[in-house]
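#struct-help
A.M.: can someone run this one for me? Single chain, 188 residues.
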Amino acid sequence: MPVELASFAATWTGKNPFLTWTTASEKNSAYFDVERSFDGKTFQAIGQRPGAGTTSNRTNYQFSDLGLTETVANTVYYRLRQVDASGEAAYSPVRTVQVPAVARAFKADVFPNPYQDVVTVRFTPAGTGAVTLTAHDMLGHILFTKTIAVGEGTQDIPLPQATVLQAGVYYLTVQQGNQQQVLKMSHQ
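D.P.: on it. Structure tokens below:
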């Protein structure tokens, strides 16, 4: 192998994952691709660091995953793809980072919008637990409230209660814990 990897670590530092690795030696090392996965199987290159060429000295590398500010994943997987001058590649072991709850995405949207017969909320929770959906009219009157338990990952929640509303504009508050989002929805 053209590179002797001495260490490779991934940690959550501040607001982003931070990767460090050290090589004990390198022979014709061109570069390292940093790859990320949310399922541990499908990886995508998210950055690159140039290799040290040929050296018998220890070389330290680091990479901040600034592209990962919010995610729905609890765990993010990383690996290195080391490429030598001839184009041959080798992979490092996979390392994981546990994403803190404050960095997990909380997102909601309604579709179709405007709607006629059926409207659905597409919701990505910040974790597991109850989600409360509350519909208001333009004056702030509560029209209906629905509380459901949700698991992880994006979910579609139909709102049959919204089909009986008069034609007009309404606001739907999607709340989980201390996070909430207010969505505008139009019934034709």
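A.M.: thanks! The two ends are 65 Å apart (CA to CA).
D.P.: also worth noting: The first strand starts at residue 3 and ends at 13.
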